[in-house]
Amino acid sequence: MVKKPQEPREEVLASMEKGALLNSTRHGGKADVGAVIGRALAEFPDLRSDPAQVAKAAQALVKQVNSMSLSQQEALLSQKYPGAEQPVQKEGRVGLPPLPNAVKGKAAFRLPPEPSGFMTVGHAMAFTINFLYRQEYDGELWLRFEDTNPRKVEPRYYESFRSGSKWLGVEWDHEKNVSDDIETIYAHGRRLLEEGKAYACSCDADKVKKLRFEGKACEHRDSPADANLRVWVELLAKKHKEGDYVIRFKGDMQNVNYSLRDTNIFRVIDHPHPLTGEKYSLWPTYDLANAVEDEICGITHILRSSEFRNELQQLLREALGLRAPEVIQFSRFNFKGTPVSKRLLRPLVEQKLVSGWDDPRMPTVEGLKRRGVLPQAIRDFTLQVGYTKTEHEYDWSILLSINRKLLDPVSKRLFFVPDPVELSVKGAPERKVTIPYHPQNDLGSRTIQTAGRFYIAGGDLKAIKEGSVFRLMDLYNVKLTSAGPTPTAEYAGDELLEGTRKFQWATPARVEVKVLAPDVLFDEKGEFNRDSLKEVRGYVEEAFTKLKAGDIVQFPRFGFCRLDSPGTMVLSA
């Protein structure tokens, strides 16, 4: 009698539901079946004996979760699994844990960006982790561009990672492009064909997808090696168009992970490469290229986010007789309201919803630089939060808080008056006042000539009543005599009065500026936030004219701002 498969037990279903909700809320409201299955098998290894039931349960849960709106998913996650979205904090330690099987002086790490977009804060954090380990273990670090899709890569993207890494203080020992080693990768691909571990397939994509789902092999799987090699030679000679053939690695067609069912390892891309031109049209996929390159570079430890699956690379290493590096995977560094995935960021640029990859709302290194985020803030933030396999989102406020602490002792203060209102002060003495740029640290000073005409913030004026006494910061007291359309005041002495409000001010020698205030790109519904970049106009004191592009100052009670271009500041924190 055949034993009937059992439904996964309750704790398994709960874990899978939590995993589906976590995955969906981190990826725009759509959970991935493979990620849910992988999480369940990792948490409950005994389930590997009945993968069919795991897959069936995961598909049902993902279908149910994906039918909800993002807000419904978040509410259910918070209600049923409170705290699941929070990172696991490591008590009593700030920093990175020791690496398994790492030998000082013999460790090798790699930074493997795909130059298909600009470097993001997620890359910056992952690069920082690898660099810090390279320093700790006196190892080697490779900057290796995974440029095997010529349709996506552009020269400016390579440079973004080079300049971004230098800005972070990340130093690498070797640099290369995977496209440099295409002939070596071809040699490994040919060997897989010769040994019957791969085959040439001309099935269309829909057919392959259907057969994978059904766990069935196509008619090409059993083609003899000489027939596959004949197609291989024709592919290298560019005798076939894009889509005519792919080279597929022989996997297990019953594997619970559909992506391991005879996956593609080479495909034709009819597009010139920015570095190799039209010399090649047959390109390896990411997993094969990585397996080979890690061997070439002598990589001992791979630290990367968990959206990259290691199973296929390990199968390819075994098939090719290559070493198996230690793999440490962690969740992607997600930020609330701002995805770091180039797949989600690129449409914003293409649709001109943002001004470019360096828009201060973008989580790119260029965007963060324009916003005035310091490299040390990213490093300190990375060390503070560490890394974990638990999927979660960070709040920008944590990074910006660290950035403020770094900026505070080194940033000059300047008076800024948003929504300015002119104020005449009767009886005001003419003064030439010298005010330090910083209340504690010696950052110099500026001298301002006053003569009884000022501008104060419209919001400050609305906060007081006629007859109220307030102080023009670092100058003297005034009493508001009229709050009408043309407000007036009178001089009220120099003595510091306890409890008196202090307002920033500007003289007629002011400079008009606008401050760009960036916010998160997506709202709670996952829709583009049309109010993600606000503009605040106002006056700043004359000393502003001495600033250079890139200088960061603090406008008291407003925030730290970076001079982006003449007359334009960007709010940092």
Please tell me about this protein's structure.
- With 573 residues, this protein is α/β, with parallel strands linked by helices.
- The chain has 3 domains: 1-85; 108-330, HUPs (Rossmann fold), CATH 3.40.50.620; 412-571, Ribosomal Protein L25, Chain P (Beta Barrel), CATH 2.40.240.
- Helices cover 32% and strands 21% of the residues.
- The strands form 7 sheets. The protein has a 7-stranded mixed beta sheet, with no helix packed on it. Strands 17-14-20-19-18-21 form a 6-stranded mixed beta sheet.
- A hairpin with an 8-residue loop joins strand 15 and strand 16.
- The termini are far apart.
- The model is unreliable at 1-5 and 86-93 (pLDDT under 50).
Task: Offer a quick outline of the entry.
The protein is built from 16 helices and 26 strands. It has about 575 residues and is α/β, with parallel strands linked by helices. The longest helix is centred in the N-terminal third of the chain and has 17 residues, at about 10-25.
Structural key phrases:
573 residues; alpha/beta; Rossmann fold; Ribosomal Protein L25, Chain P; seven-stranded mixed beta sheet; six-stranded mixed beta sheet; 16 helices; 26 strands; disordered N terminus
What topology does this entry show?
Blueprint lengths: L9 H17 L6 H11 L7 H16 L3 H11 L27 E4 L9 H16 L3 E6 L9 H14 L5 E4 L4 H13 L3 E4 L3 H10 L10 H12 L9 E4 L14 E5 L13 E3 L1 H12 L3 E5 L5 H10 L5 E5 L3 E2 L6 H9 L14 H7 L3 H11 L7 E2 L1 H12 L4 E2 L2 E3 L1 E7 L4 E6 L8 E6 L2 E5 H5 L6 E4 L3 E7 L5 E4 L9 E3 L7 E8 L14 E8 L11 E4 L3 E7 L2 E4 L2
Parallel strand pairs: 1-2, 2-3, 8-9, 10-11, 12-24, 14-20, 18-21, 22-26
Antiparallel strand pairs: 4-5, 5-6, 6-7, 13-23, 14-17, 15-16, 18-19, 19-20, 22-23, 24-25, 25-26
Helix pairs in contact: 1-2, 1-3, 1-4, 2-3, 5-14, 10-11, 14-15
